[in-house]
């Protein structure tokens, strides 16, 4: 049996194309002006819709212990929510905490993803490295053999960060493995000192969070990372870029001819600013919803990043989905903002928020580059994923640009009690979503099996 998507506008690497597309098994098997259905074929008329390769979210934290609490979303709930929004593949951050080998961490993340009732979307793993030892290069080689083609290090958080010397050694191994290093760029010493000062000044609420993590702390770390990467000759991905100053550091490195620099930003840094920390809500603590790192920034930073997206300076838009409930989790830090679990939800709403925010500025081809093709190319999923072509994976999102709906926690599938985009009027919606050739969501609601599987990269 084939599934035929008829009369849609296909978003392909060669441009927009009015054509039919057929899925069979886990592959795209035919693209033609007209595909004549057989007796057992299922035909969906997708007139007026854009047919995208399934979107890829290459920055998620599902079923993860962060040092304060477990995230609200499991792999089961997180991948279901992702698929409802049009995302058919995630790349989650497995983490080798101190005292844990990368082999042990990868095995643990496989157990988490394979537990429960299964994953709706496909999944791969980055490997985050929290300590460096003599065996670290060997462990990284084993990760590469297991289909992990990207790693992560931190320049902040005392329990996670590596020194500059260790980061350089890691970058050299990344170079030799033809891998990519994703880096959380904040100056950890500066953040620690400013947190102490802000609390000592009597500021304990969520508004203290951005005060302790200024734009300069990000820009310093971005610049430092890029110089280290230049020394090593390694490819790096600057994750969740949030500031104009950080962007200027990227531009400076590119201007001096440095290659292998990839930039990721997130919907929250393109749509929300630091005035959200002053929200009171019913209990005076609503600003805690936006405690994530890096924090929301100034309106000028939002404008600068939007301009960078439009100029093609950003390679991918991911979510950094790391969900915690406001009630029972984030509110534990009511008297000390440093005890509010860091992170926010977004895995379900990224495509709709971006399509709406850039309506009339980014067409379907540009959205495809940022949400599917870009992450596929950077993280070793191309050409099987991130494109519509015969032989590519049967992961497809049929997008209805005429749909109008309102984002709300009351109707979302993320297992968390709020959304940063409550009341957001979305223009466009995932109409049909296929994973491995199976229909898994229709008009924002789950409707099928859980065919998601591990994707080696």
UniProtKB/TrEMBL annotation:
Q: What is its EC number?
A: 3.5.2.2
The Amidohydrolase-related domain, residue ranges: 50-440
Required co-factors: Zn(2+)
Instruction: Tell me the NCBIfam families matching this sequence.
Output: D-hydantoinase (TIGR02033)
Give the record's keywords alphabetically: Hydrolase, Metal-binding
Please tell me which top-level EC class this enzyme sits in: hydrolase
Q: Which GO terms describe its molecular function?
A: dihydropyrimidinase activity
Q: Which PANTHER family match?
A: COLLAPSIN RESPONSE MEDIATOR PROTEIN (PTHR11647:SF1), HYDRANTOINASE/DIHYDROPYRIMIDINASE FAMILY MEMBER (PTHR11647)
Q: Which Gene3D superfamilies match?
A: Metal-dependent hydrolases, Urease, subunit C, domain 1
Keyword Metal-binding found: yes
Q: Which Pfam families match?
A: Amidohydro_1
Q: Which family does it belong to?
A: Belongs to the metallo-dependent hydrolases superfamily. Hydantoinase/dihydropyrimidinase family.
Know the name of this protein? Dihydropyrimidinase
